[in-house]
Design a protein that fits this description.
It is a single chain. By secondary structure, this protein is α+β, with helices and mostly antiparallel strands. The chain has a domain of 34 residues. It contains 1 helix and 2 strands. It has a two-stranded antiparallel ribbon. The protein is globular, with a radius of gyration of 12 Å. The structure holds zinc ion (ZN). Zinc ion binds next to loops.
Length: 54
C-alpha cells in the first residue's frame, strides 16, 4: 500500500525535506523573499522534515 502523503490544512501536499540542513536552506530563502517566519519540524507521519507557518 502506498504511504499516506502529508497534506496541509488546505489539502495540498506538503513539501518534504530529507535533511534538516535542506529544510533550513529553503526556510532562509523563503524568509528572505518576504514569507512569514517558518518553523522546521520533523514529521512523525512520514519521517521527513516539513516547514510550517508560525
Ligand atoms: Zn510528513
Amino acid at each position: 500500500m502506498f504511504y499516506n502523503p502529508c497534506t496541509d490544512s488546505y489539502g495540498n501536499f506538503k513539501k518534504r525535506y530529507s535533511t534538516y540542513e535542506h529544510a533550513m536552506e529553503v526556510k532562509r530563502h523563503q524568509e528572505s523573499c518576504g514569507a512569514h517566519t517558518l518553523r522546521i519540524y520533523r514529521c512523525p507521519n512520514c519521517g521527513y522534515y516539513h516547514l510550517t507557518h508560525t
